[in-house]
Amino acid sequence: MRLVVLKVLVLLFSIVVIGCDSAEKKLMKEGDELVVKIEKHKVENGHLPNNLESLGIKETMEGPLYYVKWDSVNYMVYFGTNLGESMIYYSDTKEWDYRLRGMGKDK
After folding, report:
1. 21 found inside a domain
2. Does the residue 18 lie in any domain?
3. Which of 25, 64, 102, 106 has its Cβ near the most Cβ atoms within 10 Å?
4. Per-residue model confidence (pLDDT) at position 104
5. What's the rounded Cα separation, in Å, for the pair 36 and 38?
6. pTM
C-alpha cells in the first residue's frame, strides 16, 4: 500500500512540475512576442512605449505579462511563476532571468 501511495505522489509531483514548466514556456513565448511589439514600437516611433496600452494591450493587475519602462532605452517584461517568483526579460541583455536586478550588464 505504501508503495502505491509513493508512486501516486511521485506521479502527481511529476505532473505539477511538467505543468509548471509548460505554463512558464508558454508565458515566455508570449513575452517574446510582446518584446517584438515593444521593439517595433521603438523603431517606428523613436521611443519606448510608456505602457502596454500604448501598444493597444489592455493592462490589468492580473497580467499575466507586465511591462516596466526603466529609462529611455531599457525596459523589463515579466510574469509571475508558480513558485511566487518572477521570470524577467531584461532589454539590456535580451535574456530572461529569475534574478531581480537593475539595468546594465554589470548589475
Report:
1. yes
2. yes
3. 64
4. 64
5. 5
6. 0.75
Residue keyed to cell 526603466: 70
Q: Percent helix, strand and coil across the chain, each rounded to 5?
A: 45, 15, 40
Q: How many structural domains are present in the chain?
A: 1
pLDDT digits (tens, 9 = 90+) for 31-81: 999 999 999 999 999 999 999 999 999 988 888 999 999 999 999 999 998
Please check whether residue 90 is in contact with residue 98, taking contact to mean a CB–CB distance below 8 angstroms: no
Q: Tell me whether residue 104 is in a domain.
A: no
Cβ count near 52 (within 10 Å)? 18
Q: Is the pLDDT of residue 30 over 70?
A: yes
Q: Is residue 81 part of a domain?
A: yes
Classify residue 31 by burial, with Cβ atoms within 10 Å: 0-12, 13-18, 19+. buried
CB 98 within 8 A of CB 88: yes
- DSSP secondary-structure letter at 1? -
